[in-house]
Amino acid sequence: MQLYPAVDIKDGKCVRLSQGRFDDVKVYADSPASVAAHWEGLGATFLHIVDLDGAVKGSSVNRQAIKSIGEHIDIPFEVGGGVRTLEDIEELLKLGAKRVIIGTKAVEDPDFVADAVKRFGSDAVVLGLDARDGKVAVKGWLEDSVRTSEEFCLEMKKAGIKTVIYTDISRDGMLCGPNIASTVRLLEATGMEIIASGGVSSMDDLKALKKAGIPGAILGKALYEGRIELPKAICSIENPSDFAEFKTDGQGLIPVIVQDDETLEVLMLAYMNEEAYERTLQSGLMNYYSRSRQSLWLKGETSGHFQEVVSLDLDCDSDTLLARVIQTGAACHTGNHSCFYRRIFDKTI
Fold first, then answer.
1. Residue 10: beta bridge partners?
2. Could you read off the pLDDT of 47-67 as tens digits, one per residue?
3. Are residues 174 and 75 in the same domain?
4. Is 197 a member of any domain?
5. Which of 115, 208, 248, 286 is paired with 125 by a 20 to 30 Å CA distance?
6. Sequence-distant (≥ 6) Cβ neighbours of residue 178 within 8 angstroms
7. Same domain, 55 and 169
8. Which residues are catalytic?
9. Candidate from 78-82, 170-174, 257-261 with smallest mean pLDDT
10. Contact (Cβ atoms closer than 8 angstroms) between residue 277 and residue 263
C-alpha cells in the first residue's frame, strides 16, 4: 500500500485543517518545502500537496511554494487545489508534479476531465473526491453537490480516470479513524484505484486499510502530531512484509543474500520458506530452509556462529531478500568468514 504524507499549504505555510474548516487552522511550519524534504528524508516515496487557498479561490495561490517543493525533493508528488484549466495542469506538471488532482472542476465540467486525460494521460490526472454524508463536496469543501460518490466516480471512470483520492470530510484532521467501509464500497463498486484520505490516526488504522485491500492512504495530522512514525509505517505498511506477497520458486522458497552489516561483505546465499521467515522475524536470528536436507535450520545452532538480523530488504521484483547481519564467527562451514572466498576472475590481475 502506497503512503502519501500530506503537505497542505495556506498563506504560504504548512498547515492542517479540522474537517476542512478554514477557521480551525494549525500552522506546523513556515516552509512547506522544508516539510516536504523532511518527509523525503524519513523515507517517503510519494507526497500529497494541496493548495488550500487555491481550492477556495478557484485558482492557484501558492504556486511559488509548490515550485519550491519541486526544487527541494526528488521523489514524485501530486498537487491539488484550484485546478480549473488545462494550462493549470500543464504548469503544475512543469513545476515537477507527477500527478495533478482535479476536484471542483470535475463536478462542474465532466468534459474537462476527459479533455485533460486525453491531453496529459490517465497517469497524470487524478480525481479528488471529497465527500460529506455520501455527497460530493466542492470549492474547498465549503459546498455540497447533489452527486453521490459512487455515481460520480463511475462517470469519471468513463472519462478516463483511473485513480481517485477519496476524502471523508467528517474524518479529516479529526484523528478518529478512516471510513474504511465507505472506501471499500467505493473500491468494489468502481474497480478504480481508491486512495483513502481523512481520519488516519494510528498504525492500526493503516493496517486495517491494508488488510481491506485499499491501495493507498494519505497521512496528515497523525504524522504531524507524532502518532505515526513515518519510517516504521513505510517498513510495515508500504513495503511488502507478508511472505505471501513475495515471489517464490516452485518449492515456496525465496533466496536470501546475506551481508555483513559492518563490512558489507557478502557472506552467503541461502533460502527461506515461510516458516523460516517467520522464525527469523520472531527470534531476531537468521533461520533458513535447507534444500538438500529438506528441513529448517537455525544458522549457528550447532557451531555457535549465529547471525543476528539487522535489516531485511526486498528487491524490486519481490523475489530476493537481502539480509544484513551481525555475524558471530565464520559464516561458511569451511571456517572462512564468507562463503565467497574462491575468486575465479579479477581484471586487476
1. 13
2. 999 999 988 887 778 999 999
3. yes
4. yes
5. 208
6. 168, 171, 196, 197, 198, 199, 200, 205, 208, 209, 217
7. yes
8. 8, 130
9. 170-174
10. no
